[in-house]
Design brief:
The chain is mainly beta. 5% of the residues lie in helices and 32% in strands. It has a domain of 109 residues: Sandwich (Immunoglobulin-like). It starts with a helix and ends with a strand.
Amino acid sequence: MKKFVPLILFAFLLSACNGWVIQPLPGPTPFLPSTPTPSIFTSTPVVIGVATSTPIVAIFTATNTNEPTLIPANTDTATPAPTQTVLPSDPSVAIKVLGCNTSIDVTHGMGEVTNAFVTLTNTGGVELTNLKATLFALDEGRVHPDKTVELTSLPIGYQVTVKLTVDSTYKQESPIQVEVITDQGTFPREGQASCTDIGIFAPKPDALNTPIPSVP
């Protein structure tokens, strides 16, 4: 019986999983390097410091060269347009439309025509020579022979009343413009959106195309 006791103890020791009754503590594997602690990245940026100066913000605006440049009106910064001063020696003419009337021009086969009575005054410092006054109408048809009136001269301080005629649309108001051209230059046109009926105040035919001293 004493022989079987050592055998039983030996068999009990062999039945263990690795032959050790007390398991040794785990240790690092001698041939593997140690693993460093990984860095943790977050969406929040790391703040190094706080800037004390105010950042400079640059604003860029695109310029469209296809658009025209607009100058604002009624502003304190707008530059007023220079006023053109007429010197005493410069040529100048005043154009005044007295009124209009209509008639039927059977002679030239034009039907209704518009007659404009215009007074021209030499307000400059030189005599106007080879003066041509021409009437234009917005609804003008054929060129009327009396569309333009020519004068040899208009002395300083004199005025002349002329009658100009254009072929116009029947029973329609005709916006008109009068242009004056002389040897001394071309003057700005004077016009009316609707020429008023002159009625009985139309100048007499014998008073037309004759320069007379202007009335102050």
